[in-house]
Predict the 3D structure of the following.
Amino acid sequence: MSKKFYITTAIDYANGSPHLGHAYEKVLTDIVARFRRLMGDEVRFLTGLDEHGQKVQMSAEKAGVTPIEVCDRLAAEFEGLCAALHITNDDYIRTTQDRHKVVVQDVLQKLYDKGEIYKADYNGYYSVRQEQFVTEKEKVDGKWPEIYGEVTEVTESNYFFKLSQYQDWLVDTIKTNEQMIYPRFRSADALQFLKEPLNDLCISRPKERLEWGIELPFDKDFVTYVWFDALTNYITAAGYGTSEFDEQWPADYHVIGKDILVPPHAVYWPIMLKALDIDLPKHFLVHGWWLSSGNKMSKSSGEVVKPLDLIEQFGPDAFRYFVTREMNVGQDSEFSLDLFMRRYNSDLANDLGNLVSRLLNMGQRYAEGKVPSVEVQDAPEKELKSLWEDSAKELIPLFENFQFHKALELIFTFVSGINRYAETRAPWKLAKSEEAADQAALRTSLATMAEALRLAVVMLTPVMPEISDKIRALVGAESFDRLEGQLEWGSKLEGKALGEKAILFPRPESK
Ligand code: MSP
């Protein structure tokens, strides 16, 4: 029984429509998933929706509908976004599904029976906006920061999960397991948080205050609350409690944004698993934020980019290309439509799109629509080949290390190299000559361009699956589902049919 490569995204809150941040995380995870499949792994890819909590309950009340109606509508939107972006998730979990409730209740009961969960009175400050208790420590200049909204003092009985007894173990685990958190510098955030003594985690809400949640199996007056419910999704979908679980778990990567690494993923989740005797996930892949005018793009920030609008106008691959090219996975990135248009026009429409249509055009005019033979190996061919070989050896390591922006830069430098090669060889001039040497150079240049384009799009496949596959077919290459052998120069395209001229990236005004 071989272990699958199990990768997950965060599950999105059902409290607003998807925005660029949500779309990005799915694209990033999808690229890793598609790349691992090409490397021969059997991948299992999970994403989903986090549906319980006060905000959902409140927005349903406000709209005069039931919470599940709100969630159903948003689930359709988020799943629609996945489809529009060609995300290859194998499963979509919703925390209101029975399969999930069963696991959450099972896990809660196990921890309660082990004495890891206890009931106590709690007096504290509560932020409705963040749905969490906050402490004086969080005040800045004597005031609650804006992100907490209205904060009120409440006293209530609740259930708590013991965290502090695992503190030393967790510090040691993070310190000795340097590969656990990517990028590595984010481990420091977790270790910094763990310098202070850990407070036990409040995991319940009384039903009189919050009904929209999963009932505690040992106390019907309470529901479990946010993180305990949400984090458990990763094991629910891996079949916790069934024979499938060992084939999937531990997760290879939890892909998350930097705001939810500490404390939920780097502190609560490992401790929950440890207390349950379940292996820890192997890695967290932590990405930065998309910013809009310097602020995190979020529902409450108001300035959100609706990914569906961009996808509708420019296609999913242009969107996928842009977010991957612009974002260095560990850092934040500013979104602007201007930048999007610049990338679209210059990298995609001009450099790549025009190159393909130029080749196809010449293929029809000068080579009867077939890839001709390579007959000469002069300086221009040698130069292009060596440019490729230098790039090719870096591409897989860059993908393995999530340096997708650099991989794309390298691929597009190679695409510029093909354009330069075309200018140097100028097949349109060679076609005017009847000299045998010029005719041989003409055939060689078209064949070389076809081969170089085939190579250029191999590693674009995980990023721009549809366009890459189109270009592959247009230059007469076979489809592939493994990378093996694909990056080597010198495939046998000779005699293969070249496609008809195609416009891959239409100018927006012509749409
Ligand atoms: N429901 C929780 C996650 C539970 S995971 C067990 C949550 N939901 S969220 O909708 O607020 O965020 C979902 C994911 O989108 C998170 O990983 C978050 O970091 C990411 N993003 C939300 N806004 C973002 C940006 N502006 N930029 C990039 N990603 C950000 O947190």
